[in-house]
Specification:
Layout lengths: L1 H32 L4 H14 L1 H6 L4 H6 L5 E3 L14 E6 L5 E10 L4 E10 L5 E10 L5 E4 L6 H6 L18
Antiparallel strand pairs: 1-3, 2-3, 3-4, 4-5, 5-6
Length: 179
């Protein structure tokens, strides 16, 4: 009886450890190595910004600096209230749309030696490998919004998550019916 209970306990311990290992491996694979994960999307968009001449001009670089190349920007998730806090995660929200595809909205900051820009994007995951960027914008104080991808149209998220949309306030149409 004593040996049987030890075998049962150690078997359950091995099963729980194997399950925890599988869950951890899945999370690492989907977030870091997946092309549609938050980390991969973040890195891809930062590289796009570093290669876009208009973005670099908005961030305060001169034409001669842009021609020399090799410009590296600081990119991070959020502003910190103090100088000692680092590595604030990127703000990203994932949700399933009415089209049964996974949508991701992300916001992060890019910083040059001269100024800071706010990057907003929306991506739609077509499948585990393919991801389509709907729009990528950069906002720098004192300049107009610059669209790297997409345009000033309403995205899926802006249309469907806006409480003041054409569907009425919070999805309820108030007032008289207009034909």
């Amino acid at each position: 009886v004593k040996a049987g209970s030890r075998l049962l306990l150690s078997s359950w311990l091995i099963i729980i450890a194997a399950g925890a290992t599988l869950v951890t491996s899945y999370l690492v694979a989907t977030e870091i190595f997946s092309p549609s994960g938050e980390t991969s999307t973040f890195n891809r968009v930062v590289n796009m910004i570093e290669k876009d001449e208009n973005c670099l001009r908005l961030l305060g670089y001169s034409d001669s600096e842009i021609e020399q190349g090799g410009i590296r920007l600081k990119a991070y998730g959020g502003m910190s209230p103090d100088l000692w806090t680092r590595n604030i995660p990127v703000q990203a929200t994932k949700f399933s749309g009415k089209d049964q595809k996974e949508h991701m909205i992300m916001r992060f900051f890019v910083e040059s030696n001269r100024t800071v820009g706010v990057v907003n994007l929306e991506a739609i995951e077509e499948n585990f490998i393919n991801q389509e960027l709907v729009y990528v914008t950069i906002d720098v104080k004192g300049h107009n919004r610059h669209y790297l991808i997409g345009g000033p149209h309403l995205s899926y998220a802006q249309k469907n998550l806006n409480p003041f949309s054409s569907q009425g306030f919070l999805g309820v149409k108030w007032g008289s019916k207009k034909d």
